[in-house]
Amino acid sequence: MFTGLVTDIGRVSAASGGDRLRRFRVETAYDPATIALGASIACSGPCLTVVASGPGERGGWFAVDVAAETLVRTTAGEWREGTSLNLERSLRIGDELGGHIVTGHVDGVADLVSREEVTGEGEWGPTARFVLRAPATLPRFIAEKGSVTLDGTSLTVNAVSGDTFSVLIIPHTLAVTTWGERRAGDRLNLEIDLMARYAARLVEARQAGY
Length: 210
Prior knowledge:
By secondary structure, this protein is mostly beta strands. The protein has helices spanning 68-73, 171-176, 194-207; strands at 8-17, 21-28, 40-43, 47-55, 60-67, 84-89, 108-119, 127-133, 147-150, 153-161, 164-169, 187-192. The chain has two domains: 8-89, Beta Barrel (Elongation Factor Tu (Ef-tu), domain 3), CATH 2.40.30.20; 108-203, Elongation Factor Tu (Ef-tu), domain 3 (Beta Barrel), CATH 2.40.30.20. Strand 4 and strand 5 form a beta hairpin.
């Protein structure tokens, strides 16, 4: 379980394997002494299991194995050496729930349609509005002022129109996540709000007479 509040930008330093199973080594500022084997880390959305770790140039590194299902259904199949990843470690009892409840189970991949600079650099940095297109089965789960997770980042939906929706990214988020790098044409891992998923399932079950 996660909150969608990114705590580090990791970088893929090695990738090996094939279409059925691929291993990625990720450089991070996390202290390797605190990364346990079997721990869960959200890597730009998907919740992945640490299979190895050790000290590195930035502080530490960890390795994760990504199976075929995740490679196909997320952007993990596109990760290469040098790819930047939003990282979040799993929520602990007593941690502040500052974003929203995020599972790390990606529902689909959204396409970034456009990026509009809302403000310039200014005193605090730039602000940008991003318009994204959701996969065909997911727009019904996305609501204005609701929550979505994009590449592991908890965000508030500004507006919805058909299969497109927009989010506004503040200077701090642009600076401490991979959003500063995002441009039109990019693909992002999308996780819909957990409550929206279960509400829709309850309606479907009632209509089916369950």
